[in-house]
Design a protein that fits this description.
The chain is mainly alpha-helical. It has helices spanning about 10-25, 35-60, 70-85, 95-100, 110-125, and strands spanning about 65, 70.
Length: about 120
């Protein structure tokens, strides 16, 4: 069985709990346990709100607009991969064969194809 507030998003539930806690805190007898309970509502409401906004940001951070990445983290990853791409034109046949024996073909299939193409070009010379 679901309670009605369990279906509310955290970004809405957090401020509602905080407001309820402040209301209870102000209307409770001073220095009573009721005030501590109300303070607990305030703290929990703030924590729920912070985590909900963080989750909402993480979900919307990776949206694509017109096929381009909007996430700065993913853009940086793509740029790092471009910079880390090796220039196999500088290697001789022996070095390329050694690299081909050590490379993870499942992870870098495009590099394997590039090395094989370079080896074929060197063998034709």
């Amino acid at each position: 069985m679901f309670l009605p507030w369990e279906k509310l998003p955290g970004w809405l539930l957090g401020p509602l709990m905080t407001c309820l806690g402040i209301y209870l805190f102000l209307h409770a007898e001073p220095y009573s346990w009721r005030q501590w309970e109300a303070l607990g509502f305030v703290v929990v409401g703030i924590v729920i709100f912070i985590f909900a906004v963080k989750k909402l940001y993480a979900e919307t951070d990776e949206y694509h607009i017109d096929g381009t990445l909007t996430s700065p983290r993913k853009k940086a990853k793509v740029e790092r991969e471009k910079l880390s791409a090796l220039n196999f034109a500088n290697y001789d046949a022996m070095q390329l064969k050694r690299i081909l024996g050590r490379i993870d073909a499942d992870r870098y299939p495009e590099r394997v194809k590039e090395i094989q193409a370079r080896l074929e070009a060197l063998e034709q010379k």
